[in-house]
Each structure stands twice: as C-alpha cells, then as structure tokens.
Amino acid sequence: MKKRIIISGGGIAGLTAAKLLHEQGHEIIVIDKARAFTKAGFFVSLKSFGVDIMDQMGLKEELIQEATPSLFMHWLDAEGHMIRDISYEKVNQNTTQSILITRGCLHHVLYKSVRNEINILFDTTIEHLEQHDQKVNVTLSTGAVLEADLLIVSEGLRSSTRASYFPESQLEDFNLLYMGGRLKGNYPYTVGTVRTYLDVNKMFAIYPVNKEEIAIQCYIHTTDNLPAVQENAQNLLKETFKTYPSEVQHVINDFLTNGLMFVDKMGMVHAPNLVNGNVVLLGDAGYCPTALSGMGASLSIYGAKALAYFLATYADDLALSLQSYNSLLQPISKKFQGNARNNAQSFIPKNEAGLAHFTHLFSNATDEQISKLMTDQLILTQEQLHFTLPA
C-alpha cells in the first residue's frame, strides 16, 4: 500500500506532510519554485495544536532554540500611550505556550529533518498534469514527466495549480496589506517584549529579536491591487505612520534604508472541495485563513497531520482517505477564517468608534478575560484533535 507521492510546494505544510508520509514508508518527491531555502521571512506565532504536533514530531526543542523570546505584549495607541500590558504566560495559561519564530526558521527546522531523506527538486514547478487509471502524470517545468499515485498541492496562497485544476476555488482579497522585515542595529527595546500600536485601518508592531536586531510588522487597509501596492510600498509605509511617535519614525526610516522588506496582500482561499481525483490541496493553497487568524502555520501543520492520518487509516482506499480529509478540514477552515474576520474588526478597526470600543474593552478586561479572548479561538475540539469526522 505504499504510494509514490509528489508534493508541489516545500513550505511548512509541504515539508510537514513530506516528513510524516516518508515515515509511513511512502516514496516522496518534493518540488519547489525556489532555487534554495533560506531562514528569511516574517514572524509567526506557532500556537496550540501546532506546537503540540511539532512536539509529537520531535521538533519542538529545535523550534525553541530558533525562537525569539516572547514574555510580554505592550499594546499602545497611535501616540504611544499604553493600552494594556499583557503577559504571554498569563494569556497562554489554558493552552500550550506559543512559540514566536520567523517563518523561515520554522521552515528550516522542518527542512533539516527531511533534507537527507527526501528528494527535493528546486527551481521546479508544475507545467501540466493529467489523471488516468488512478494515477497522476505531472509534467514539470524541467521537461520531466513524473507518474504518481497522489499529488499534494501546497504551493501557498497564490497557487497556480489550484487556479488551473480547482476552478470552483476562489481567492478572496482581504484588503489588507502586510509589510514586515528585519533590521540590524542597537535599539532601546527589551528583548521578549513586543510593542504593538493599534489604530484605525492599520496596526504596527516592533519585535526585538535580540540585542542587535529587531523586526517590524504592520497591516494597512487598502483596496489597491498587489502590483500597485508593491510598487508604492516604501512610500505607503512612511506616509501611513508619519504621525506616530519619533521612535517609530526612526525605526521606519532605518528600515526603509537598511532593512529587508517583505510585502504582500492578505487573502483567503475558499475551496468547496480540497480534492480533485488524486490531487489534493494542503495548507494555504487550500484553506488560507490569513495571518490574522493567528493560526495559519498551525493549521498548515494540522492539515498535513490529518492527511497523513487518513492515508494511513484507509491505506487501501485513497479516495476515502482524501474525502475524509476534505470533510474534516472544511468546517475547521471556516472556523479560522471567521476568527480572522473577527480579529480584523477588533485589532484593525475601520473607524474611530470601533477603535474606542475595543480599546475600552481591552484596557478594562481582567487577565482571565484577556486570556479567554485571545486563546478560545485557537482551540480545536477533542474530536478534531483526534481526526474524528463530523457527524
């Protein structure tokens, strides 16, 4: 019952699936458009079941070694006045401690665990695929044609394979620009304390990585398309936060001069079916909940674990395996996409009334209420954690 499986996209979801499926004895081929993997990338906060699954895979300690300390969150208004000082320990008292790490470092931990075991073809994409006789024939950009029992598409938010072979899927523009990156230098910030400025239609955060480096992340509401945003990114960043305190201005100016910037527009993928024959969507390619769900990386890891679980459980019935995976993930993806919408309304309000309401709520809530507000949405049911299908 061992299968030949091609995974298109060697990101977090793809490499998690590669590791789990290789350990089950399947032949795995990973293709990726990148020429090489690096540790670069924006910050993610791996939480709840995402941390637990990485622990089950034996990778949690390596993640912690690569992580950035996260002790406190300072929530500030646009003038730099404190709204709320929150302890990560108190927030996470009812769930697994989150791990603050760059996406690149999380990816690197996964890559190290599989690079000597799995064939990875870099600088390679899918040109064409055909299905027949319960097989998938994949024509690569290199000209090679590979036959497989299963193709896992984990190409990310803007997957070209999804667009071509899952016509009912839709990519929703979330109308939020994400900008982030890292900057070396000596800044007067305490390592372990994240500073986040809340405002109407925007949010700005500073992450002290270590004594010699900081990272910034911001969200800006915009209806402009991605090419227009990318062309005007530097000016947009500067103009959007030009009235902020001098310390923020200083960081932004340094970042625009010396930092490495990542720019993208956030989106959500709506795929009525994650399966098309022997082709299956995984991770952001199939059910992206945006970074505002707080669980994008964790959900990619969970999806990979669920897919591996069903492939092992129904080893003699690939169709049943894939449909079980689809049935499990559909309501879960909707839940986390709903969380993202709610978080956008709370943390990036559209008007002054919304900002005032949330600021009042946030500043007056008890620690227990804050913990509930920030962690209840991270939880899966016990049935979902054990991959039990909905009735």
Automatic annotation (TrEMBL):
The keyword Zinc does not apply. InterPro entries: FAD-bd, FAD/NAD-bd_sf, FAD_aromatic-hydroxylase. Pfam families: FAD_binding_3. Residues 5-316 form the FAD-binding domain. Keywords: Monooxygenase, Oxidoreductase. It comes from the Bacteria. GO terms for molecular function: monooxygenase activity. This is FAD-dependent monooxygenase. It comes from Xanthocytophaga flava.
